[in-house]
Amino acid sequence: MDDQLHIIIAGDRGKIFKFPCSRKKICIIAASSIITLVFLTVTSLFSISFFTKQHNYSEKITKLQSQLKQSAEQQQRLDITIAELKQSKAEQETAFKEEKEHLISTAVNELTERSDLIEKIVGSIGIKIPKSTPKDGRNSGGPFFATKAEQQDELLYRADRYLKTIRLLPFGRPVKGIITSRYGKRKDPLNHRSAFHSGIDFRGKRGEPIKATADGVVKKAFRNGGYGNYVLIDHGNGYTTSFSHMKKYLVHRGDKIKRGQIIGLIGNTGRSTGPHLHYEVALDGKRINPYNFMKIAKLKH
Fold this sequence. Notes:
- By secondary structure, this protein is an alpha+beta fold.
- The protein has a domain of 122 residues: Glucose Permease (Domain IIA).
- 44% of the residues lie in helices and 25% in strands.
- The chain contains three helices and 14 strands.
- The strands form three sheets. Strands 3, 6, 7, 8, 9, 10, 11, 12, 13 and 14 form a ten-stranded antiparallel β-sheet that branches. It has a two-stranded antiparallel ribbon with strand order 1-2. The chain has a two-stranded antiparallel sheet with strand order 4-5.
- Strand 1 and strand 2 form a beta hairpin.
- Helix 1 packs across helix 2.
- The longest helix is centred in the first third of the chain and has 101 residues.
- The termini are far apart.
């Protein structure tokens, strides 16, 4: 037989309760209690872990919601900034367009005035400015209304033609010296006989620079008898200029020349009474008065 155990419980009134219990039963109860305790402990740990994770998830969700709200606010601010930038850009484009039109209008007016002045000045000595060649307009017709842009382009083409023409015309003085002998009839300084002077003489100091009066190409640069050291420049439009009595020429045949370029030095070579420059302008081989071009150069300034 199994050993019997008696559990005695005494009440407050002296009543006694006895519970007989075998050792096996006690072991079973103890084992059940331990299992129950272990189960409750595991369950409690799992519950604590679960609720901890739930709490962490809740915090993360709250944080993400807060970040999302902040992102929405940032996006809203960004949208407002973009809208303001677009408006500012549109205003700047409008202001730029107005300023551009104003500048173009001002430039057009100035070009018109300068072109009219150039045309008047150049025309005063009978120089014709080349016209632009119109495109073939066969088999077409209808009324013509020039657009503003076309008018501006035509003015620019016109001014460009004038500039090209002027660049090849011998305006201005080749040296700074005073004029000692003008174009036309005079007494020869050596034999004192009446003669025709085909250019203009400028007094100068030996070695002073001589400048080209227009763009062109050197056709001659050599010792030319009574002309002394001599340079002839062809300007490609029928005009030529020549420079005589130089101490030394600094260019050679075939050189391309720009207006203002130094081509030689004042001297006293050839048939000459002292250091000076004999300067000539010719059109189609016929000598003309260089002073007309010098007057125009003064008007240009």
